[in-house]
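Structure (tokenized):
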């Protein structure tokens, strides 16, 4: 992509969500490693809508909200050799890492009236959106926990049984928010080493072979984050 196109990806680009739809509402960029991760509540739309934010990321480790309350654990993470930066996420999850080969994802959904399980509605809606978005790269995605994956959880998005996307959630009475990360380029050895070291602090073993990237899954070695963002800007699905 040209420098002008890359600059355009980095600038916030609002697109209003349609009623009853999951679609990209904003494209933005993380600033520096000291910037606090945020929840994109400004994107919240009508009941039944899910607004997705795509972003470029900076190289740092982010700790999920629950784990971030453990002071001793944060100190142990901060002491890891080679740590490029440390942030605490306002959503759930364990540990993720960012950088040029990783694409950040956020979403805010307002459940439709009468839905008793907002988290299930949100996760099902996003799972359908990811299946559609990844199909554009010729990739078939499935949802469910991947053992050996980084930041493992019920909402893992996998390709061929290998983890591709990790999602964490925060739920309130009025909305559900997701923060996630996807490996676009093959996971670098130093990134994988950090993910393994972080997860071992909580007794979780990350297995490199259990994880993949979109570049590998799609058979496109030169795939970059900016290209994925351009492909996904107009992807939308029914929110159910």
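Design, position by position:
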């Amino acid at each position: 992509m040209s420098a002008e196109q890359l600059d355009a990806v980095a600038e916030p680009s609002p697109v209003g969500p349609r009623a009853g739809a999951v679609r990209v509402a904003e494209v933005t960029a993380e600033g520096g490693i000291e910037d606090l991760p945020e929840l994109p509540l400004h994107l919240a739309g009508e009941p039944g809508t899910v607004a997705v934010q795509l972003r470029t990321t900076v190289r740092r480790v982010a700790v999920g909200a629950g784990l971030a309350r453990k002071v001793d654990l944060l100190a142990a993470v901060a002491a890891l050799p080679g740590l490029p930066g440390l942030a605490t996420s306002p959503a759930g999850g364990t540990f993720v890492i960012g950088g040029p080969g990783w694409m950040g994802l956020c979403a805010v959904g307002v459940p439709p009236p009468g839905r008793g399980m907002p988290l299930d509605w949100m996760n099902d809606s996003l799972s359908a959106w990811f299946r559609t978005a990844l199909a554009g790269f010729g990739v078939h995605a499935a949802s469910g926990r991947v053992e050996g994956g980084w930041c493992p959880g019920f909402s893992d998005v996998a390709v061929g049984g290998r983890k591709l996307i990790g999602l964490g959630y925060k739920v309130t009475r009025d909305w559900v928010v997701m923060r996630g990360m996807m490996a676009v380029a093959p996971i670098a050895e130093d990134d994988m080493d950090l993910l393994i070291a972080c997860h071992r602090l909580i007794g979780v073993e990350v297995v490199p072979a259990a994880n993949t990237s979109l570049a590998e899954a799609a058979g496109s070695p030169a795939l970059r984050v900016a290209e994925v963002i351009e492909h996904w800007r107009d992807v939308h699905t029914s929110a159910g």
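Reviewer-requested clarification: DSSP finds seven helices and eleven strands in the chain. Helices lie at 3-10, 65-68, 71-78, 118-135, 189-200, 214-218, 225-232.
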